[in-house]
């Protein structure tokens, strides 16, 4: 999808209402943005415009609730660029939160840029490489992880 002013405005409204900031605990350098909602098509549109990834593994709070979906943009440089683009369209309270996020972003030392090793999950997740080899490595990794998560969930329910 082509990124337009309308897309940035649309995302600003979506993030204002549904978005939140991600910080990894214990001084790790991972930061990002996330949106959690039940409308998968809206999150797929955000992913098409801005990248990131989606996760459908959350459990429903109650059986009659809709399935929640999560969109995350974990690449902090991309998240920073996106926040700068939407900043002027946000409300005052959300602008203050963005300013805190940016202050934290600036405290972190830049990640040493390394050559991407193609065909790895790190190439896909941390360096944003979308070549077929990195995409396949990421798919295979999470295919195994989903099996492990389901097995763990099954053992907890029995």
Descriptive terms for the model:
158 residues, alpha+beta, 2 domains, 6 helices, 4 strands
Domain count: the total is 2
Tell how many strands the DSSP assignment holds: 4
Average the pLDDT over all residues and give the rounded result.
Answer: 83
Listing every helix as H and every strand as E from the N terminus to the C terminus, the arrangement reads: HEEHEEHHHH
Spans where pLDDT lies below 50 across 5 or more residues: none
User: What portion of the residues fall into strands of 2 or more residues?
Assistant: 5-15%
Give, in spatial order, the strands making up the sheet with the most strands.
Answer: 1-2-4-3
Q: CATH class of the largest domain, anyone?
A: Alpha Beta
Question: What overall form do the CA principal axes indicate?
Answer: globular
Tell me which CATH architecture of the largest domain applies here.
Roll
Let me know the largest β-sheet.
4 strands, antiparallel
Distance between the termini: 44 Å
Rg computed from alpha carbons, rounded to a whole number of angstroms:
17 Å
Description:
- There is one protein chain.
- By secondary structure, the chain is α+β, with helices and mostly antiparallel strands.
- The protein folds into 2 domains: 1-111, Endonuclease I-creI; 114-158, no CATH class.
- Helices cover 53% and strands 13% of the residues.
- The chain has a 4-stranded antiparallel sheet with strand order 1-2-4-3.
- A hairpin with a 7-residue loop joins strand 1 (19-23) and strand 2 (31-37).
- The mean pLDDT is 83.
């Amino acid at each position: 999808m082509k990124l337009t002013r309308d897309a940035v405005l649309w995302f600003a409204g979506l993030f204002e209402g549904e978005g939140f900031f991600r910080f990894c605990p214990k001084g790790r350098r991972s930061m990002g943005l996330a949106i959690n909602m039940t409308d998968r098509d809206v999150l797929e549109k955000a992913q098409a415009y801005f990248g990131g990834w989606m996760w459908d593994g959350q459990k429903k709070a109650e059986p009659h609730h809709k399935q929640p979906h999560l969109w995350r943009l974990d690449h902090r440089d991309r998240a920073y660029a996106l926040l700068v683009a939407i900043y002027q369209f946000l409300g005052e309270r959300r602008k203050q939160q963005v300013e805190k996020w940016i202050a934290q972003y600036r405290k972190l030392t830049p990640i040493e840029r390394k050559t991407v090793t193609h065909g790895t999950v790190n190439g896909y997740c941390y360096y944003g490489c979308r070549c077929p080899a990195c995409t396949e490595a990421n798919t295979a990794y999470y295919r195994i992880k989903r099996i492990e998560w389901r097995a763990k969930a099954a053992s907890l329910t029995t």
